[in-house]
Amino acid sequence: MTSAVSQGPLEASRASSTVAPNRLARALIYAALILFAIYYLLPLYVMLVNSLKPLDEIRQGDMLSLPMAGTIEPWLKAWATAQIGVQPTGLKPYFMNSILMVVPAVFISTALGALNGYVLTKWTFRGADIVFGLMLLACFIPFQIVLIPMARMLGILGLAGTIPGLVLVHVVYGLGFTTLFFRNYYAAFPSELVKAAQIDGASFFQIFRRILLPSSGPIIVVTVIWQFTNIWNDFLFGASFASVDSIPMTVALNNLVSSSTGVKEYNVHFAGAIMAALPTLIVYIVSGRYFVRGLMAGAVKG
Amino acid sequence: MSFLQIIDLEKSFGNVQVLKRINLEIEEGGFLVLVGPSGCGKSTLLNTIAGLEPITAGEIRIGGRRVNDLHPSKRDIAMVFQSYALYPNMTVAQNIGFGMEIRGVPKPEREKAIARVAEMLQIDHLLDRKPSQLSGGQRQRVAMGRALVRDPQVFLFDEPLSNLDAKLRVDMRTEIKRLHQRMGTTIVYVTHDQIEAMTLASKIAVLKDGVLQQFGTPSEIYNNPINTFVADFMGSPAMNLIPATITNGAGGLAIEMERPSAPPVTLPLASPPKGLAAYKGRSVIFGVRPEALTDPDGADRNAASIAQTECFIEVVEPAGSDTFAVTHLGGKGVIARLRADANIQPGTTAPLTFNLSKSVFFDPETENRIL
Ligand SMILES: Nc1ncnc2c1ncn2[C@@H]1O[C@H](COP(=O)(O)OP(=O)(O)OP(=O)(O)O)[C@@H](O)[C@H]1O
Ligand SMILES: [Mg+2]
């Protein structure tokens, strides 16, 4: 018998014994993943289907069933006419408030965090580590502790109850996190590049803009997602510092759900809740892709 | 008149002193090569000259002007970094042109300069690529290009050829030498490569643990090393440093070296250095370069002082142009460099000739040269 023949069956059995369990394991993994996905998506499903049902249908029955007489009335109502607090304005103005608060707050806190990280890693000064330590500490301060001093500060600055006031609050509170993100990212950024740019004659801001920022994609995305979600979802600062015409979405949603007189319009509540969640979802979906792409580019660079 | 002067320079990181009282100077158009083992402070010294690291004490002068407190961009230097330091988000052309762009050089002029340098470095086909799409050697050439595109007072090169393959490295070495002869710009150059150091330098500075060991022309460093460290560091294969004893021979001082299973070798010293008399009866380190230890036919006929002795050959290593033979003296393996066609067999005894006028002696305690 030649060795080639005796090897044949051996190889075959080895091959089949590795393929079969592989497939089984794969199937099991997928089954588990699908199960988890359903489990996680179930609340969203419940919200979505019930926001499209007329109120009677919800009252009669099954939370999980699809709408029989589908309607977008609850969405329109939640958006434009629902009673929030005393006014029947819907969530629209509050949604705008949130946008006006979140966009500048995210932008400013991210930009400042990037600058802080740049200075703390590439232009280190005596005591830079202490400064960074103190900023880190800011991440651990509970919201509640800063409430009263912050109210006082806003009063002094004349920003109490305004959207710029809320922006300031969120920028100050977020700065610790954004600085942490950027500092750690830039710490791994080669200092030689900064030195080379210095020799090339680039100024402090030119180096930041031309050398560091173009390589900061992934960390910018991480920071923006983090800040956007936190600020958009914040309730406590909004409830504490906003006045009637600067109330953000989260607080308005709460008012919609808890203060409506008479019948509880679950379908409207569900629609409003989805509206409140939508922007963060969109941010995740849109920038998540860039996030992954940024990570891949970094990995290949070596 | 020296162009670049480094006076009593000291540099500490925290309380770790990395450079200790360095004094160096090089004339305009000179080529200073810094050598030394890894971590001895070569890159740090270069960074202080560039102004990228503040110095702790001392003074740096370029063209007679004190530059201690001058910003890197104002010192009129161009630098090639050990890690290339290419801007990852820019193409090769943008990398090379960045300095000019910042300085406001108009675009057509910039493009002409980039094209000229790219052609010289054979990277003209890569101009539109990003650094991440280049091989190590190509990146290194881009880094060179970024410096060469300018016409500074001083070039600072930190191991610019370390990642190139052997052939390209030789080409680039010649190219740098030619460039230096043509432009006449002062260069400070860090390298690990002996041959680069010897061929390029007008002056070599040998550093160890942040201390300048010796500063001199390549031939001074090679032929008159000031201590065993310099002797051992420069040259490949390294100088043989043989433990030996100074004895009183018939015609004056002689040197005696132990041999395994044979009586010691004694070589008469026709013209020993003056200081050696004090070592009579004491041990010294006898330094002889492999090329000063040859087969009798290959010996230098013009040498002033030659001694021949029979040695037991342990290993023979033909290397093409030469044949290296290893024998045992003073308890150490000793390398001799013979002619390529020398008829020599391992495991036999063969006559070897010491060129004593090329040999040096060191104190075994201080490791300094005995003069
Ligand atoms: N920023 C820094 N902080 C603290 N120590 C440093 C710093 N930079 C360099 N050193 C130390 O200074 C010493 C000299 O470093 P340097 O980079 O100059 O060595 P080198 O001679 O260039 O070595 P190599 O040949 O490996 O490039 C090393 O011991 C290093 O650990
Ligand atoms: Mg170095």
Automatic annotation (TrEMBL), chain A:
The keyword Transmembrane helix applies. InterPro entries: MetI-like (IPR000515), MetI-like_sf (IPR035906). The keyword Repeat does not apply. It is a multi-pass membrane protein. SUPFAM superfamilies: MetI-like. It is found in: Cell membrane. PROSITE patterns: ABC_TM1. Belongs to the binding-protein-dependent transport system permease family. This is Carbohydrate ABC transporter permease. It comes from Chelativorans intermedius.
Automatic annotation (TrEMBL), chain B:
SUPFAM superfamilies: MOP-like (SSF50331), P-loop containing nucleoside triphosphate hydrolases (SSF52540). InterPro entries: AAA+_ATPase, ABC_transporter-like_ATP-bd, ABC_transporter-like_CS, ABC_transpr_MalK-like, ABC_transpr_MalK/UgpC-like, Mo/tungstate-bd_C_term_dom, NA-bd_OB-fold, OB_MalK-like. Keywords: ATP-binding, Nucleotide-binding, Transport. Pfam families: ABC_tran, OB_MalK. Residues 4-234 form the ABC transporter domain. One of its GO terms (molecular function) is ATP binding. Belongs to the ABC transporter superfamily. This is ABC transporter ATP-binding protein.
